[in-house]
Amino acid sequence: MKICIASDSFKGSSTSQQAGEQMARGIRRVFPDASIKIIPIGDGGEGTVEAVIMQMGGSMREITAAGPLGEPVKASYGIAGSTAVIEMAAASGLTLVPEEKRNPLITTTYGTGEMILDAVRQGCTRILVAIGGSATNDGGVGMAQALGYSFTDSKGNEIGYGGGSLDQIESIDASIAADLSGVEIEIMCDVSNPLCGPKGASAVYGPQKGATEEMARQLDANLNHLARKTEEFLGIDCAEIPGSGAAGGLGFGLTAFAGGTLRSGIEAVLEAISFSGEIKDMDLLITGEGKMDGQSIFGKAPVGAAQAAKRLHIPVIAIAGSIGEGIEAVYDHGIDSVMSIVNRPMSLTEAFAESSELLADAAERAMRMIRIGMGLH
């Protein structure tokens, strides 16, 4: 039996690779001679760089970049051949800002731009940018400033960091911006929010970054001002593109200032690692993530992997840390069965602490059911 394990990370307990190894232990308790291939995957969130670069045979590169508050931080990204994989959260993420200092009026994506520029200087011609987990609401202006764009106020001075400064923009100058004409930038994004409005970056995501209602209104107006000035000076209108509001408008900024293309994170990952070719001879795919529910069909890694498997007529089992409301939706999107790792009443703390054995046990239970099925006529 040939089995591929392609799981997302179980956040707080296991990386994609670790989850795969733990599931493999459970499989071998039932099918000791099974041929098992582990392919770490991610959908643009935490762990995506590690998963993709590991599969592509690349390596990690660390640079010093500006953090969300402008202070220097160590930020790592992956390089495999001419492809770079970057998580914006490595330099501009919410976890880099202490809760008491979270303020999207002043946080910047400048460090994300520094990572992109470094990747270009390393000779990368394809850059995948995962834009989840941001601390920012600056429309990608900080990122663009790092690439050489100039955003000046009425006195000709460069504006400061953060979404709170965007209303000061009177002019945008791209004359000394880095030449990215030979670089393909793919923006890994799985939300459809526009830049502005009630479903925009500020209204929907601003509060989790420290914005009050009043701040969110100000930030929304400032992003709208940025969009108008971008159209005026660059002739680019992309504020309504689904996903332009992701990561505090970084989706907009990467599109407008870096020529990026918004696409599904898991689709970009699976393409980068040639997933369909890797699994074409498999008898079974096992995937998983920390929580599966009705929302998992919207760009989550397990469903993306399952859909690729189904196109090859490969059955799919998902193993989840917990199963939530609307789980039946995944059965129409490539997953044949879902099994929870929880085997008794337990707290989240207990589940994290015992995740290694729980994953192995869940995989074993799944294999025992398969063995029963193999004997039925």
Uncertain regions spanning at least 5 consecutive residues? none
CATH fold title of the largest domain: Glycerate kinase, domain 2
Helix content percent band: 25-40%
List the strand order in the largest sheet.
Answer: 3-4-5-6-9-10
CATH-assigned homologous superfamily of the largest domain:
Glycerate kinase, domain 2
What's the number of domains?
2
CATH hierarchy, class of the largest domain = Alpha Beta
Q: Biggest β-sheet, characterized?
A: 6 strands, mixed
Mean pLDDT: 94
Strand percent estimate: 15-25%
Order of helices and strands: EHEHEEEHHEHEEEHHHEHHEHEEHH
Rg, alpha carbons = 22 Å
CATH architecture of the largest domain: Alpha-Beta Complex
Structural class: alpha/beta
Shape: elongated
Task: Give the oligomeric state.
Answer: single chain
Describe this structure in words.
- The mean pLDDT is 94.
- The chain has helices at residues 16-30, 48-56, 89-92, 110-121, 141-146, 201-205, 213-234, 246-258, 265-272, 275-279, 301-310, 348-353, 355-375, and strands at residues 2-5, 35-38, 59-66, 72-80, 83-87, 126-130, 150-152, 171-173, 184-188, 261-263, 284-292, 316-323, 337-340.
- The protein is an alpha/beta fold.
- The strands form three sheets. The chain has a six-stranded mixed beta sheet with strand order 3-4-5-6-9-10, with helices on both faces. Strands 2-1-11-12-13 form a five-stranded parallel beta sheet, with helices on both faces. The chain has a two-stranded antiparallel sheet with strand order 7-8.
- It has two domains: 2-40 and 282-375, Rossmann fold; 48-266, Alpha-Beta Complex (Glycerate kinase, domain 2), CATH 3.90.1510.10.
